[in-house]
TrEMBL record:
Gene3D superfamilies given in the database record: Winged helix-like DNA-binding domain superfamily/Winged helix DNA-binding domain
InterPro entries to which the protein is assigned, alphabetical: ArsR-like_HTH, HTH_ArsR_DNA-bd_dom, Metal_resp_trans_reg, WH-like_DNA-bd_sf, WH_DNA-bd_sf
Species classification: Bacteria, Pseudomonadati, Thermodesulfobacteriota, Desulfuromonadia, Geobacterales
Protein name: Transcriptional regulator, ArsR family
GO molecular-function term, one example from the UniProt record: DNA binding
Originating species: Geotalea uraniireducens (strain Rf4) (Geobacter uraniireducens)
Length: 98
């Protein structure tokens, strides 16, 4: 029964479900797609999305907390990148199904 995932450890599935729930917002999908293969600072991200800085920062905080993003401080700037490039591949597959 393990071939279809039924016998997988519960924690493994819980972590994956958390990642999918975290990605379940259009703004977060756009952020992950935009960070594929690069890093960007908060200002660059909110300017690109044309959304208020506070909204973008909140989404970045949630994605960092849930293991999708890494954040590095560069002076007063915080730059974000994907913790795992597979996230970008997953989002690309999701967006291709439009």
């Amino acid at each position: 029964m393990t071939a279809n995932g039924i016998g997988r450890p519960e924690m493994d599935l819980e972590e994956k479900a958390l990642l999918l729930r975290t990605l379940g917002h259009p703004v977060r999908l756009k952020i992950v797609a935009g960070l594929a293969g690069k890093c960007a600072c908060v200002k660059e991200i909110w300017e690109c999305l044309r959304l208020p800085q506070a909204i973008v920062s909140q989404h970045l905080k949630v994605m960092k907390k849930n293991g999708i993003l890494d954040a590095k401080r560069d002076g007063v700037r915080v730059c974000y990148s994907l913790k795992n490039e597979m996230m970008a591949e997953l989002v690309t597959v999701l967006l291709a199904g439009k």
